[in-house]
């Protein structure tokens, strides 16, 4: 009897109280949340890390936004039934969409198509500064990542893994569903390529800095610029559309030539 009581007493004495368990869970949650916040803060470049734009630039951008964009996105950029909210999209999204002429849209369609921009570089920068002032978001990339002097081999591998299924391995573009398409990347400015990866416009996924580091993005740009500046080693590239175009060429011209020669030889024998 004495030993049972003693054993039971020790068990009761060593039992953890509910308050201690709750405290441990709370500490674990706070630690996990803090670590996530630390890593996520470096996952995507945000406008808080860039030099602050002048108030004059922000004011000019607000005027331009009100007269050209507010119809769809609302006067406060919070969005309407005709356009999404721009709160938190950052200056990179504005520089890409407006700088490539995709915005403002000329006509409604499956996706906004590139066209000549109607704004100067300074006006685009002003609108980007205004949107960036509303909330932190992905920033316009630093020049050091836009020089196309990175690792071409690594860029080619990353492009094949992450981008080629839509844009084609040679960046020639391709058709998607419901009338949408992945545009060709030949001639696209380095900053716009980087910003597209960073912000994921339209059908494109977002590749933040946890998916592809800034140097990875720079390497992909290096690969695309290499393709742009070097002719195809195989000769006539047939639009870089791959085996479908090459096979069609063989069927039409190769077999057609064989049939023509066969008919010619048959005619001569008669």
Automatic annotation (TrEMBL):
GO molecular function, one term: heme binding
Record field: transmembrane: 248-267
Gene3D superfamilies: Cytochrome c-like domain (1.10.760.10)
PTM comment, free text: Binds 2 heme c groups covalently per subunit.
Domain Cytochrome c: 56-135, 150-228
Entry binding sites for heme c 1: 69, 72-73
Subcellular location(s) of the protein: Cell membrane
Enzymatic class: translocase
Entry annotated with the keyword Ribosomal protein: no
Residues involved in heme c 2 binding: 163, 166-167
Catalysed reaction equations from the record: a quinol + 2 Fe(III)-[cytochrome c](out) = a quinone + 2 Fe(II)-[cytochrome c](out) + 2 H(+)(out)
PROSITE patterns from the UniProt entry: CYTC (PS51007)
Subunit-structure text: The cytochrome bc1 complex is composed of a cytochrome b (QcrB), the Rieske iron-sulfur protein (QcrA) and a diheme cytochrome c (QcrC) subunit.
Name the record gives this protein: Cytochrome bc1 complex cytochrome c subunit
Native species: Frigoribacterium faeni
């Amino acid at each position: 009897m004495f030993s049972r009581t003693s054993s039971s007493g020790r068990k009761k004495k060593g039992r953890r109280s509910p308050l201690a368990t709750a405290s441990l869970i709370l500490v674990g949650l706070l630690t996990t949340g803090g670590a996530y916040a630390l890593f996520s803060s470096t996952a995507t470049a945000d406008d808080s890390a860039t030099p602050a734009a002048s108030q004059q630039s922000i004011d000019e951008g607000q005027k331009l936004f009100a007269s050209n964009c507010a119809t769809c996105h609302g006067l406060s950029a919070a969005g309407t039934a005709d356009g999404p909210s721009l709160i938190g999209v950052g200056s990179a999204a504005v520089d890409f969409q407006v700088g490539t002429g995709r915005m403002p849209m000329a006509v409604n369609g499956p996706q906004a198509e590139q066209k000549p921009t109607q704004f100067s570089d300074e006006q685009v920068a002003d609108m980007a500064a205004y949107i960036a002032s509303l909330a932190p978001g992905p920033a316009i990339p630093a020049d050091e990542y836009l020089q196309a002097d990175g690792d071409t081999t690594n860029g080619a591998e990353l492009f094949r893994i992450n981008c080629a299924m839509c844009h084609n391995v040679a960046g020639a573009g391709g058709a998607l569903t419901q009338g949408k398409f992945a545009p060709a990347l030949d001639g696209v400015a380095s900053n716009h390529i980087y910003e597209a990866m960073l912000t994921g416009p339209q059908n494109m996924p977002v590749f933040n800095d946890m998916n592809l580091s800034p140097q990875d993005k720079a390497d992909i740009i290096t690969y695309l610029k290499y393709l742009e500046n070097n002719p195809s080693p195989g000769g006539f590239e047939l639009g870089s559309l791959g085996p479908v175009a090459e096979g069609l060429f063989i069927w039409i011209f190769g077999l057609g030539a064989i049939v023509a020669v066969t008919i010619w030889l048959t005619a001569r024998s008669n």
